[in-house]
Amino acid sequence: MPNETTIEHQRYSCKQGHEQKTGDIPNNHCDDCWNVFYWSHAEFTKALDAVMFEPNGAEIIEAVKGKKTLEQYLRFRATHELIKVDTEHHEPVTEPITEEIS
Ligand SMILES: [Zn+2]
């Protein structure tokens, strides 16, 4: 039984069967894990969206969150076509989405 000071993390598995906890950035290169991570952390993903539209946004994300987070974020955005990103120059080419990620 978790006591009231315990923060409960939901566990989830990606399609490859890797188990992750919500709140944890995936520590692997599994695309599915990252996909689930970005879908289930809408606040984090929207924060990255905001940074992405700053000048040098991609560089800022890489500097703060690391290359893997940036690469997987760009892949996630490209996959879901929420933002079109010029993958060569890491520049967004469409407007950011405004609706909630659910
Ligand atoms: Zn996985």
Keywords:
10% strand, two-stranded antiparallel ribbon, elongated, 43% helix, 102 residues, mainly alpha
Quick recap of the structure?
By secondary structure, the protein is mainly alpha-helical.
In one word, what is the shape?
A: elongated
Judged by helices, strands and strand pairing, the structural class is mainly alpha
Q: In what range is the share of β-strand residues?
A: 5-15%
* N-to-C SSE string, H for helix and E for strand: EEHHHHEE
Distance, first to last CA: 29 Å
Low-confidence stretches: none
Strand order of the largest sheet: 1-2
Which range best describes the helical content: under 10%, 10-25%, 25-40%, 40-55%, 55-70% or over 70%? 40-55%
Rg calculated over all Cα atoms: 15 Å
Largest sheet: 2 strands, antiparallel
Number of strands: 4
User: Ions, cofactors, ligands: which are bound?
Assistant: zinc ion
Can you count the helices? 4
Mean pLDDT: 78
Would you kindly provide a written description of the structure presented here, covering whatever features stand out?
The mean pLDDT is about 80. The longest helix has 14 residues, at about 65-80. Strand 1 and strand 2 (about 20) form a beta hairpin. The protein has about 100 residues and is mainly α. A two-stranded antiparallel sheet has the order 1-2. A two-stranded antiparallel ribbon has the order 3-4. Helix 1 packs across helix 4 and helix 2 (about 40-50) packs across helix 3. The protein has 4 helices and 4 strands; from the N terminus they run ββααααββ. The chain binds zinc ion. Zinc ion binds near residues 14 and 18. Zinc ion binds near residues 16, 32 and 33.
